[in-house]
Amino acid sequence: MLQGFKDFILRGNVVELAVAVVIGTAFNAIVTVLVDALITPLVGLFFNADSLADSLRVTVPTLLGGSSTFAFGAVLAAAINFLVVAAAVYFVIVLPMNTFNERRQAKLGVAEETPAPTQEQLLTEIRDLLAKQATN
Question: Which residues lie in coiled coils (predicted)?
C-alpha cells in the first residue's frame, strides 16, 4: 500500500504539476500588477469597465414577494477583464517568449520537429506494407 503511494508521489508528472501550481501562483502576482498598473488604465481611456458592474441590472419580483437582481453588467465586466488579462499575458509574455525561443533555435541550428504522422497516414503505411508482404 505504501509502495503504491510512494510510486504515485515520485512519478514525474505529479512533481511537475506541483511545481507548475507554485510557479503559477507566483506568476499571478506579476500578471495582476501588469493588468492593474498598465492595461486597466489604458482600457480606462476608452470606457469605464468598473461602471458595468453597477449598471445593466435587472430586478424581478420573486414568487415569495421579494425581489431578485440579475447583474448582467457584472458578468460583462468579468468577461472583459478576462479578455484583457488573456491579451496581456499573450502579447506581453507568450508572444515575446515564443519569438525568443524561435530565434534561439534558429541561431543554434535546431531544426523544427516534424509533426507526428496522423492515424490515417499510419494505417495507410501498414496497409501498403501488408500488401507488399502478400505479393512477395
Answer: none
Residue 90 located in a structural domain: yes
At residue 135, does pLDDT exceed 80?
Answer: yes
Whether residue 49 has pLDDT greater than 70: no
Structurally, the chain folds into a number of domains equal to: 1
Whether 50 shows a pLDDT value over 70: the answer reads no
Is residue 82, in this structure, part of any structural domain at all? yes
CATH number reported for the structural domain that contains residue 71 in this entry? 1.10.1200.120
81, 84, 47, 45: CA torsion to nearest 10 = 140
Q: What is the pTM of this model?
A: 0.53
Structural domain containing residue 108: 2-112
What pLDDT band is residue 111 in, cutting at 50, 70 and 90? Answer: low
Q: Which three cell numbers stand for residue 13?
A: 508528472
Residue 61: inside a domain: yes
